[in-house]
Every structure is written in structure tokens, then in C-alpha cells.
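Help needed: design a sequence for this.
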């Protein structure tokens, strides 16, 4: 088992990881998710003893990595598929690792067969494709037959057959009672592979729960309703009837309506009672990707200026979509990419805390930014925590 307690890593004034506490248990595939720059790779490096934590601790089977006896036989990892001497063959690369760890040479041929590189075992790794390099990195991780495995983007560069193979490999390793910790940006793959999720944003823990619970907590099922495109009057009449029946209705960009708060049969009854003909009435089950995007939309650091969600990005505090009256948020999707739906777990990054409340991940009260000229008509709340700014102030 991997256990992190208060794990923090700073590089000068930059905080990469802040006060992470989590456990990665054996017998399940645990997905490690977060936007670029959120601290995933730094966390994995601290687990493997490659970086020393500024504060807190992380252990494997109750011991720091550097105190594990014969660590390669207990922990296997793939962090960088390119970390191979290009002049060595695949077999010689694995053989050198085996000799350093006291692993029998026959194990090298075994893992080459497991990853499907037996036919190119004597070719120089410098000529390998990205996918072949990934397979070689996985072979190196499996070399010591370890109980704990860490993989950073293991399917990067693999073809569909290779992705399916990695998925089945992860599940098989977990079924054998091993601890499997996988970082990936492919939400569709994580939905098929992971049993549990740990999600971080800007170095802070955002979620630690099963995939099923994560989707349920950060999304809401809804009904998609469409009326004839040329009958705007019927569409407005249906919207009014649904709202009167207790539903929440949001227009979608293509003209359909997103309805929450009512079951599908009730939506049909309301439409029939309002004498509105429907072209579409379909249920929508939230995906892991949608739930992930809802939770992390305010914790993304690198965003195109053409992205309509760029307004959620700090570092300069400025009025956001929450500064407008609530009724304006119901008009469409242009200003609020992922509106909050009934039953959805509040997003501490996209939904700002009340003035004077502690900012996410800190013990300090967040100051509410004020506009330069006049008092706002709606309350203005703090932007998401800027750890870099806070650390700079601490340093002073």
C-alpha cells in the first residue's frame, strides 16, 4: 500500500504539491488524475524517492522508498519511456537492470514475452517507436515481479490493440492483489480501467473516491428534449410547463433543452399536457470525462485564449460568471461552460467560497477582491487559491 500524509513539495516560491493525504490500496487499479501542471509527476517522483518532500511523508508498505530492502523487487515504475540508453538493445537494457537488482537473467526473457517485444529483443532501443518504448518501460517495471506498480501515462503512443493489452494487464495485476497506481489523461480509458480515483488540482487533493461515486458526486443525469426546430413557440411553452412542474431547464447550443429534476416519463407527460410535439426525448448518463471536466474546470493552468472557460483561470482576480445575478446564468452555456445541476457536488474551484471563508487547501481566510471603481451589485468572492502567490508572501 502507498500512503501519503501531508505531502508538500516546493521549488523556491513555487508550490507543486500542497498537503496531499491519500492511500493507494492493493487489489484495485487506482487512477491518478489532474490537469497538466497539477503535481501528478512530482507526487510520483516523491513516492519513488526521486524528489524529497518539503513537508509530510509518503511510504510504501510502511517504509520510505529508500529504506525498502531491494526496492526493485518490491516496486516497479514507468515514469519516462525515453529513459533508455539508445545504443543498447531491449534485452541488454533489461539485463543491466536485472543484474543491478539481483534478478535472474531468465526473468528478462519472460517480461519481453509479456510485453510482446521478444522478436525485437536484440534491436537497439534507439530505433524504437514511442509505443515500443512504452512496452519496454512496462517490461522494466515488471522485471522484479513487484507488489507495487506505478505507471505514468502507460498507453501513450500505443495502438488500440496495445491500449487494450495495457488495460487488461492493469486489471490482472490488481486482481493478483498488487497495488496499481496509474496516471493518465485519457478519461475514456480510466473509466474502463480504474476502480478508484485520486484527483488533484494545483497540487491539492480534490477527490479520493470510487469511479462510480466520483461521477455521481460531480455530475447529474438529465433528459435531453427537442421540439421541432421551426416551432419556437412550442419550445417556449414546453420550457414554461417543465419549470412549473419543478424541473430545471437549460438550453443547449443546438437548440435542445437539458432537463433535470424530473424523470423521463414525467417529462413526457408534461409535454403531452402542454400539447407540444417532441422530436427527441432521451436520457443522458454522465461520463467520467464530463464529471472530471466539471470538477477541474477552475484548476486548469494552461488554456487557449479561444477557450470559453478561460475566465475560470487565475492568477488575476477579476469578476467571473458567479458575479452576475443567478437568473442570467440560466440563459445559456456561453458564460458558464458547466452549469451546476441538482444533486451535483459543489466544485470548490469553480464555485468561490463566501467572503471570509478559508480558501481551498489553506487555513487562511480568503480576501474578497473588490472592483476598482464601484461596489458590485452581487457579492464578489475570492478566486481559487494561488499557492505560488501565497508562498511568495510567506517567503517575504
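Sure. Designed sequence:
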Amino acid at each position: 500500500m502507498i500512503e501519503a500524509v501531508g505531502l508538500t513539495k516546493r521549488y523556491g516560491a513555487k508550490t507543486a504539491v500542497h498537503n496531499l493525504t491519500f492511500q493507494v490500496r492493493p487489489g484495485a487499479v487506482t487512477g491518478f488524475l489532474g490537469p497538466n501542471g497539477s503535481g501528478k509527476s512530482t507526487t510520483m517522483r516523491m513516492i519513488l524517492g526521486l524528489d524529497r518532500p518539503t513537508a509530510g511523508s509518503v511510504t510504501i508498505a510502511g517504509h520510505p522508498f529508500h529504506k525498502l530492502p531491494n526496492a526493485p523487487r518490491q516496486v516497479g515504475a514507468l515514469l519516462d519511456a525515453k529513459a533508455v540508453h539508445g545504443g543498447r538493445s531491449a534485452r541488454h537494457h533489461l539485463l543491466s537492470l536485472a543484474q543491478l537488482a539481483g534478478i535472474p537473467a531468465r526473468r528478462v526473457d519472460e517480461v519481453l514475452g509479456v510485453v510482446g517485444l521478444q522478436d525485437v529483443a536484440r534491436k537497439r532501443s534507439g530505433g524504437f517507436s514511442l509505443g515500443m518504448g512504452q512496452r519496454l518501460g512496462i517490461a522494466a517495471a515488471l522485471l522484479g515481479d513487484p507488489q507495487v506498480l506505478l505507471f505514468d501515462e502507460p498507453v501513450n503512443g500505443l495502438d488500440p490493440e496495445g491500449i487494450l493489452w495495457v488495460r487488461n494487464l492493469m486489471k490482472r495485476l490488481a486482481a493478483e492483489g498488487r497495488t496499481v497506481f496509474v496516471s493518465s489523461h485519457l478519461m475514456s480509458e480510466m473509466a474502463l480501467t480504474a476502480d478508484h480515483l485520486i484527483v488533484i488540482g494545483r497540487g491539492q487533493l480534490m477527490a479520493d473516491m470510487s469511479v462510480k461515486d466520483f461521477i455521481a458526486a460531480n455530475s447529474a443525469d438529465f433528459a435531453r428534449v427537442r421540439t421541432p426546430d421551426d416551432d419556437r413557440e412550442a419550445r417556449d411553452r414546453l420550457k414554461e410547463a417543465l419549470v412549473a412542474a419543478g424541473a430545471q431547464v437549460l438550453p443547449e447550443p443546438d437548440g435542445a433543452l437539458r432537463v433535470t429534476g424530473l424523470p423521463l416519463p414525467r417529462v413526457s407527460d408534461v409535454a403531452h399536457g402542454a400539447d407540444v410535439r417532441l422530436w427527441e426525448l432521451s436520457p443522458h448518463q454522465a461520463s467520467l470525462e464530463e464529471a472530471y471536466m466539471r470538477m477541474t474546470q477552475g484548476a486548469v493552468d494552461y488554456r487557449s485564449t479561444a477557450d470559453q472557460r478561460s475566465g475560470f483561470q487565475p492568477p488575476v482576480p477579476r469578476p467571473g460568471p458567479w458575479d452576475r445575478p443567478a437568473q442570467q446564468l440560466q440563459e445559456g452555456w456561453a458564460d458558464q461552460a458547466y452549469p451546476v445541476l441538482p444533486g451535483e457536488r459543489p466544485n470548490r474551484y469553480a464555485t468561490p467560497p463566501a467572503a471570509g471563508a478559508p480558501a481551498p487547501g489553506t487555513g487562511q481566510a480568503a480576501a474578497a477582491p473588490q472592483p476598482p471603481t464601484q461596489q458590485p451589485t452581487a457579492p464578489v468572492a475570492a478566486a481559487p487559491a494561488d499557492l505560488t502567490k501565497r508562498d511568495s508572501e510567506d517567503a517575504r
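The CA atoms of residues 307 and 337 lie 10 Å apart.
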